[in-house]
From TrEMBL:
Domain Beta-lactamase-related, residue spans: 13-327
Pfam families in alphabetical order: Beta-lactamase, DUF7586
SUPFAM superfamilies: beta-lactamase/transpeptidase-like (SSF56601)
Native organism taxonomy: Bacteria, Bacillati, Actinomycetota, Actinomycetes, Pseudonocardiales
Gene3D superfamilies, per database record: DD-peptidase/beta-lactamase superfamily
DUF7586 domain span: 348-431
Designated name of the protein: CubicO group peptidase, beta-lactamase class C family
Organism in which the protein naturally occurs: Actinokineospora alba
Coiled-coil residue windows: none
Amino acid sequence: MLQQTTDFALLRRIATAQAESRAPSLVAAVVRDGVVVWTGARGKVDGQAPTNDTQYRIGSITKTFIAVLVMRLRDEGLLDLNDPLDKHLQGTSFGEVTIAQLLSHTAGLTSESPGQWWERAVGDDWTALQNSLTQNALRHRSGARFHYTNVGYGVLGELVARVRGTSWLKALETEILAPLGMTRTTPQPEAPAALGWAVHPFADVLLNEPTPDAGAMAPAGQLWSTVHDLARWVRFIGGDTGDVLHPDTVAEMRTPVHVDDNDAWTMGYGLGFEAMRIGGRRLSGHSGSMPGFLASALIDWRTGTGALTMANSTGGVPVVALSHDLINLVEELEPALPVEWEPMAEADPELLSLTGLWHWGPTPYLLRLLPEGWLRLAPVSGVGRQSRFRPEGRDTWTGLDGYYAGETLVLHRDADGAPSHFDLATFVFTREPYGTPDAIPGGVDETGWRTRE
C-alpha cells in the first residue's frame, strides 16, 4: 500500500479535476507491479459515491480488446498481419488494405461511418455498414499516414467474427474477459452503472446522453467497465497477460507503428494501443470517449506503474493528463527500489565462454549472457546499435529489440568445433579486430595493421 501522504496527493489531484471540470462523478485507480495500490472517487452516482464496481462506458478502449483478439488469431497462425483484408473478409470496397494497417490506423480508411453520428444512433448490422462504404471509403493512400478510423475497428470486429465463426462479443468473453476474471466488463450497462451526462457550458445543469447499441460499429467503442476490471486491463497492457497473450506480443502491440506529430512526437499508435510521450515518460494504453463518458487507461510498462480514470461527462475532463499525473505522483513520491540483484540460477559454461569482447571490424562490442540463454550485444562505448537475442537452438538467436529486432545471430565454428565468429544479418563479429580473415567479406589486407600509411 502507499503512504498516507501519497494517498492524499492522489486524492487531491482527482478532487481538483472533478471540481474544476464539473464532472458529475469521477473514479480512478493506480496499479503498481501487478497490484492495485490506490483507488479514489469523487462526485455522485444515483446520490451515492461511486465504487470500484460502478460501471462507466469506456469508449475507444474497446479497440484494445479487439486488437488483442486479432493478435491471438495471428499467434495461432490463422492470419498474418500482412494479409489483405480480402483474404479473410470479402466484399468490401477496400479489400486491399492489410490487417496491420487497420490495427494501426494507417489503412487510410474514413474515420466515421457514413450516415448518422454513430455514437448517438442505434447501429445497424455488418451488411448495412459494408454497403455504406462502397464509395470513397479510402481517404488516404494505404500506409501513407496515420488517420484514426473508428470504421476500421468495426471492420476488425467483423474479421474476428468471420475467422472465429462466432460473434466478436462471444470471442471476447471466452478468450479475454473470462480468463482474466473481468466479469463486470459488458456491452450494455449492468447495475450499478453511471448515467452519461453532458454538462451545460454556461450553467451547472445536466443533460442525459443516449447510450444506444452501436451495432456493427460496436467494436470501436461499445464496452462498459469498472475500476476493478479496467485495472486488470492496465496490468495486461503492461505485460501481465495471464494465458491470454504472450507478453512479447503485447510488447509488439505497444511499439509505435506511426506517429501523429513527426517533429518531436508525443502521440503515436501501435497495433491497437496508443503510444504517448508526456513529460519524458513513455506510456501505453488507450483513451476513450462516448457521449456522456470519458476514460483513460495508461501504463509506464518500464516501471510497472499505471493508472486509469473514468468520468460520466461528455467533455471537459482531462482523463489522459489525469492518468499521467497519477502515475507521476506515485513515481515521484514513492520511487521504486531497484530490483535486487542476484546471480543466475544456472549458466551454460559454453555460453559463458562466449561472453566478453567481440569486434565488428575495428569497433569493440560486449556480449553479455542473460538468464535462460539470452544474449545482449552492445558497443563498448554504449553508443550505437544494440539488441537482446533469444535462443532459437544451438548457435542461433533472434533479435528482440533495437536495430536487430527480428534478425538472426548465428555462431559459426571452425573445423574443430571451436567458436570462430558471429554472423548478424551479414555483419561479422570476431574476437580480434578483423580477426578470422576467411570470414570477413572482401578479405583482410595481408600486410596487417601498420604503424603509418
